[in-house]
Amino acid sequence: MPQIHALDALEILDSRGRPTLHVTCTLGDGAHGAASVPSGASTGAAEAHELRDGDPARYRGLGCLQAAAHVRETIFNALSGSDFSDQAALDSALIALDGTANKSRLGANAILGVSLAFARACAAAQRRPLWAYFAALAGEAPRLPRLTINLFSGGKHAGGQVSIQDVLIVPLAATIRGALEQAAAVYQAAAVLIRDRYHMRPLTADEGGLAPDFETDQAMLDLAMRAIEAAGFTPGHEIALAVDVAASHCYADGLYTLSGGRFDREAMIDHLLGWAARYPLISIEDGLAEDDWVGWAALCARLPAHTRALGDDLLCTHPARIRRAVDLHAANALLLKLNQIGTVTEALAGRALAAAAGWQVVASARSGETEDHWLADLAVGWRADYLKVGSVTQSERLAKYNRLLYIEARELASAETHKI
Fold it and tell me: Pick from 194, 181, 195, 271: which is nearest to 231 by CA?
């Protein structure tokens, strides 16, 4: 059984220049694993607690030295020398050691770093790729995901120049290589369009999406359609769209304020249904506020079959919230983010609940990412329907896409399950 021989943690910087953690784990047999922890900007209220130092003299209070010390000292001292039968045993020990409902004592960043580094070390000990380790945890055959790729950004990812957070393209090519070729063509076409229309260079938001000063949210969607066509593709047939509204961030006092106007719940649902009728949307993410369970159920019931109600802030990858949404028919797709819940095992439980309900699962990165590519392996091993990483620029995004290219070409090339 795996035994933790050493744990270490280092404060590093994420893609926004903010601190996060890099954690290393060495097992008793010498197997070694390391993982970097992502961090979100647009966060749900029910997310596990990300421990920050609060010292204004360092990184405006966002330092992670306390979380790193918890890994090296508190967690290591408690777990060193213990045998763990599997990933679930390790994660259960971490949860018990923290002892809080939201991991606020040790920090979800510290706990997730250890959970992921242990997973990598176990995969190394078993001499198998990380995706194969994740697949064994899930009891599933691996499968490559489709990609949802940021094209245009607003909201908290881009300074709020428009209300909604992201418009994404969804290449429908049969391979990862083909999907990235399509995405790159549309991205370059979009860069030309914003140069001609907005007279600006292709400056990007947190996740690499283009972020011109759109007049309205609908203008983002209209320009995405034009970019697809300018690249030589047919919207809805070769490339679909997805949208992340992040509605909790534009909701107050019972009203949603978008650049297209102000809406109560019913009017907001009608507004979103209008988008689903006009554009080839595979999903609307966080179309309503994170605690509007009644509204979510109404939206889910009225959306066309080809457009999913994708829960991010609503669900926070939390099994209890996913279970409630299943019971209320308040969503039919899960945005899976490991740092929202804090351990590999808890995220797997959330994924299992969603899959059992017939939902789609979208494995997702965060706005603050690193060049670690464990998410690509997780998406393959857990048979995610889609992977949401960001745009086709910036190395912290490309690391995940490049890992998928390698898995497709070298590690799953002969498997029947790899076709997307």
Answer: 181
The answer to whether the beta carbons of residues 217 and 259 sit under 8 Å apart is yes
**Alpha-carbon gap, residue 317 to 350, rounded angstroms:** 6
Token pair 């990184």: residue: 59
Percent of the chain surpassing pLDDT 90: 85
Residue 209: helix, strand or coil by DSSP? coil
Lay out the sheet containing 19-27: strands in order across. 4-13, 19-27, 32-36
Mean pLDDT in residue range 305-330: 97
The whole-angstrom separation of Cα 340 and Cα 317 is: 6
C-alpha–C-alpha distance, residues 35 and 299, integer Å = 38
The single residue of 11, 47, 50, 207 carrying the catalytic annotation is: 207
Question: What are the Cα distances from residue 70, in Å, to 12, 73, 78, 113?
Answer: 15, 5, 11, 11
**Over the chain, what is the mean pLDDT?**
94
Q: What are phi and psi of 175, to 5 degrees?
A: -135, 160
Q: Is the pTM of this model over 0.90?
A: yes
Annotation says 207 is catalytic: yes
Q: Catalytic annotation on 156?
A: no
Give pLDDT tens digits for 266-290.
Answer: 999 999 999 999 999 999 999 999 9
Q: CA–CA separation, 284 vs 130, rounded Å?
A: 31
Element (H, E) at 353: helix 344-356
Can you give the pLDDT at residue 156? 64
Q: What is the largest CA-CA distance in the chain?
A: 63
Per-residue pLDDT band for 418 (boundaries 50, 70, 90) equals: very low
d(CA 267, CA 31) in angstroms, rounded, equals: 56
Tens of pLDDT, residues 108-165: 999 999 999 999 999 999 999 999 999 999 999 999 999 999 999 987 655 556 778 8
Q: How many other C-beta atoms lie within 10 A of the C-beta of residue 73?
A: 12
| Helix, strand and coil in the chain, % to nearest 5 | 45, 20, 35
Tokens encoding 322? 């996913």
* Sequence-distant (≥ 6) Cβ neighbours of residue 96 within 8 angstroms: none
**β-bridge mates for residue 26, sequence order:** 6, 32
